[in-house]
Amino acid sequence: MKFNAQWIHTSKDTGDVCPVFRKEITLEGKVKKAELYITALGVYEARLNGKRIGDYVLAPGWTSYDHRIQYQVYDVTDLLAEKNELQVTVGKGWYASPMPGWMESPDKLRRKNRERALFAELHLSCQDGSREVISTDPSWQWAESPVRFSEIYDGEICDGTFSPEEWQQAETMEGPTELLIPQEGEEIRETERIRAKEVFTTPAGETVVDFGQEVTGYVEVSLTAGKGERIRFLHGEVLDAEGNFYNANYRSAKAEAEYICRSGKQTWRPSLTFFGFRYIKLLRGFRVFGYQTDRADPDRQAGDQRCGPDSWGRPICFMSSAATDMEICPIPCCSGESIRPGCIPWTKVPPRSGNTGMGLWRTGSSGVRI
């Protein structure tokens, strides 16, 4: 397909902060169909008028970026209004992460320092037969996003009190347009929730959540909190010989998630990274009591267990960011420094009888080229 869009990036270095790009669009006539063609150097999450576009997690996925970059197509007709705002947050993803984490090399440094960028076209087909294409170009704007840090190895920090402001004009750059290909791999999606098996205190006094099996995904937290309160937790695959939390096998990977709360009820999950783990260690902002693993009503999701700055209004859940049996996503059975694209495929398991207020999502996919 021939594109007229330009690659855009920020006008200055944002460091670890993920930029968000936006375009304000006013429609003059009625639109019959609207399709968004989009990709990024990095990973992205797109929203139109505040609503998430599609359910592809960590798009555009992991490919050999020097040879091919996938683009995605979304039907966004139902999300349009007369006045619209399209926002896209771009994280480092695999594109600008220090892979492999344990091995130092000039090429690793090159990849780590690669600049994130966005490429998109919104194709509008109007009821009067006219067509319009709105492309990424210097008319787009950018600002810092609430995602203050996001990286494949070290995790994500999000500030729920932060709102993008001080919008600046985006700049164009020479990008690998000739490497763009349609989506080939199976899209990464959230498909299944599996609840936690146990919450316990280790001999060292740590509060740990056990999901009973190795999973690939992230934590979603729903809670009521005061502005500025923080929650923070680590991920790990195993316990040590004494039964304490252990993730030294991740080597330098921090595998950490942190959220700065706004006031009131809210839900948060990492949006631009993933983790491989069985356990999480609750570090900050959590109180756990009244835990119960076997409940008469497995569909009831709030009440018995409470933790967080105030309480759990809804359950934590883990959501899968990719399968372990496909080559397009570099997810083995962990998200530490070892990267080997191919592992034991997930198989569906029966739901647990206990409602722990915590769970996970996971996916299954077939192998495709990278």
Could you explain how this protein is built, in words?
The chain is mainly β and 370 residues long. Helices cover 2% and strands 38% of the residues. It has one helix spanning 106-112; strands spanning 7-9, 19-26, 31-41, 43-48, 51-52, 69-75, 83-91, 117-126, 131-135, 141-144, 147-151, 155-159, 168-169, 171-173, 180-182, 198-201, 207-225, 230-236, 238-239, 245-246, 256-260, 264-268, 275-284, 311-312, 317-319. The strands form 5 sheets. Strands 11, 12, 16, 17, 18, 21, 22, 23, 24 and 25 form a 10-stranded mixed beta sheet that branches. The protein has a 6-stranded antiparallel beta sheet with strand order 5-4-7-2-10-13, with no helix packed on it. A hairpin with a 5-residue loop joins β19 and β20. It is globular, with a radius of gyration of 21 Å. The protein starts with 6 loop residues before the first strand and ends in a 51-residue tail after the last strand. The model is unreliable at 288-370 (pLDDT under 50).
